[in-house]
C-alpha cells in the first residue's frame, strides 16, 4: 500500500511539474520577443498584449535556426496556432494570446496545446497566407518572366537580321554606283586624251602652207574638226554626270 501511495505521489508530482513548466516552444518564443537586440525583426506590440514579426524573411533566415533548428516560417505559425495564438492584423504578422503578455512570463504554463480539428483548418489557412507573403517569387511569375525574356530575345534577334539585310542591300547599291563612277571616269580620261591629241593636230595645221596669207585647207581637215567638236561635247556631258 505504501509503495502504491508513493508511486501515486510521484506521478502527481511529475504531473504538477509538467503543468507548471511552460512548453519549450513558448519559452523560446517568449525569449525571442523579449530580446531587445531583435526588436527590428520581432518585438512586442504597443500595449504588450501580443508580438509582431516585422521582418519575416530575416526572422526565418537568422532567428528560427538558432532556437528551433529550422528556418520554416510556416511551421512556426502552425505551432503558434496549436497553442491558441491568433493573427489579429491583416497588414502585418501580429499574434496574440491572452496568456502571452509582456512582463508576465509566469502565465506561460497556463497555455495548453490545442488538438481540435477546427484548429487544423485555421492553421492550414494561415500557413497558406504565409507561403504567399514569404515566397520570394511565385513560379507563375517566374514562368511569365521567362516567356517575356524569350520573346524579347527573339524580337531582338529578328531586328538584327532585318538590319543586316538592309545594310547588305545598301552596300550593294553603293558598290554598283562606285563601279559606274569608275567607268565614267575612265571614259572621261579617254576623251580628254583624244581631245588633247586633236588640239595638237590643230597646232600642226597652223603650220600648213598658205597662199597669199590664206592657209590652204588640207584634205580631211573638216572631218577632224567635226570629230574634235563631238569629243568636246561628250567630255562635257560626262563631266556633268560625274558631278551629280
Low-confidence stretches: 134-138
What distance lies between the first and last C-alpha atoms, to the nearest angstrom? 130 Å
**Amount of beta strand:** 5-15%
Q: So how many helices?
A: 7
- Anisotropy-based shape: rod-shaped
Compose a concise summary of this entry.
The protein is α+β, with helices and mostly antiparallel strands. The chain contains seven helices and six strands.
Description:
The radius of gyration is 52 Å and the shape is rod-shaped. The longest helix is centred in the last third of the chain and has 67 residues. With 244 residues, the protein is an alpha+beta fold. It is built from seven helices and six strands, in the order ααββααββααββα. About 2% of the residues have low confidence. Strands 1-2-4-3 form a four-stranded antiparallel beta sheet, covered by helices on one side. A two-stranded antiparallel ribbon has the order 5-6.
Which secondary structure elements does this structure contain, and how are they paired or packed?
Elements: H1 2-20, H2 24-34, E1 42-44, E2 50-53, H3 56-68, H4 73-82, E3 86-87, E4 93-96, H5 117-134, H6 139-205, E5 210-211, E6 214-215, H7 221-242
Antiparallel strand pairs: 1-2, 2-4, 3-4, 5-6
